[in-house]
Amino acid sequence: MKIVARTALINQSLPLESGQVLDRFELAYETYGELNAQKDNAILICHGYTANQHAAGCGPSGEAKPGWWDAAIGPGKPIDTNRYFVLSSNVLGGAGGSSCAASLDPTTKKPYGMRFPVVTIGDIVKAQHQLSEQMSISRFHAIVGGCMGGFQVMEWMASFPSHFDKAVVLAATYRVSAHTIALMAIIRDAICSDPDWQGGDYYGSGRKPDRGMGLATRFGLCIWMGRSVMEQRFANRLSGDKRLHYGFGPEFEIEQFLQQVGAGSGEKIDPNSLIYLGRTMQYFDLSRRYPYLPDAFEHFQGKALLVSYDSDWRYPPEEMELIHQALESAKVPSKHITLSSTFGHGAFIYDFSSLAPVLSEFLN
Fold it and tell me: How far is CA 41 from CA 129, 169, 343, in A?
């Protein structure tokens, strides 16, 4: 499988929903496979919260681990790179090399920090559209995304409905709940409460909010990993010498695992990017722009596949069903499938086997 990693410089202004304007910006991406002569075999993968654009293979940049959706993308896999040209785009504010808080402000020649403008899902999709234009891709065969990636797919349906044929929305909702807003707020507060965060200006200081990031990452794991999976994997088994010490150090296997997850998390993703993407998710609400939700999809002429999971308590199946009903009201051919999994919200990544035949059939 041919893998290419690049960063596009978009010399085109991007008006943001906040009222600010990016005069130009960078957007990092990876591609897999080959774009055919007709340029009609492209599939856009929209990544979810915290992930970067490295979606498949071990990558051309020396990544030791396969991409976050390697189970789905590759030769002979459901998103078959023998047939499709797959574009995995990073997002504005993301941690994979795109314009974000760590980028240099052209005015000050220093990293933006928290002076980088807040971006929305709408801003992210407009940037992706400009990237597709620069790559001379006028129409995608499909656009696919889970979680925050699913938000992006719906925004594409609303804002650029004639630019793709098939929409795949996985484990998502048309508007985030108060519960999700609260979760993102706790993650943000965990980072910002670390003195080493320094108001977001930790770049070049020799200090990063590692403790805050560790706490945020451990909390995030509890969002993604379902209760039953955690119980099956760890239960209340003791670690180390397998005896109780009657203190407050890590005595259980799950506690040790959480420590491992939190260690070095600040090296995997820029803390400010985690804050920005969390805020982006908090702002997502299609019904704010379209009080009658079918209006968001009335111009989309393609087909839609919606997949939810019975154990997903963040974006439960009943919320996906509301999207399905809106699509049907807008006369969009739509199928909503609820899959069974113990993996909770992260099932579309960590329990791919049940999704594989559904996705493969829809894309073909």
Answer: 16, 19, 32
CB atoms within 10 A of CB 314: 20
Quick: pLDDT tens for 268-310: 789 999 999 999 999 999 999 999 999 999 999 999 999 999 9
* Partners of 10 in beta bridges: 25
How confident is the prediction for the chain on average, in pLDDT? 93
H/E stretch holding 6 reads strand 3-10
CATH topology of domain 180-278: Rna Polymerase Sigma Factor; Chain: A (1.10.1740)
Q: What pTM does this model have?
A: 0.93
- CA–CA distance, 308 with 253 (Å, rounded to integer): 30
Tell which residue, 266, 175, 173, 169, has the closest CA to residue 214: 266
The structural domains of the chain, with segments of one domain joined by +, span 3-176+286-363, 180-278
116: Cβ–Cβ under 8 A, 6 or more apart, which residues?
Answer: 93, 99, 100, 101, 103, 105, 272, 276
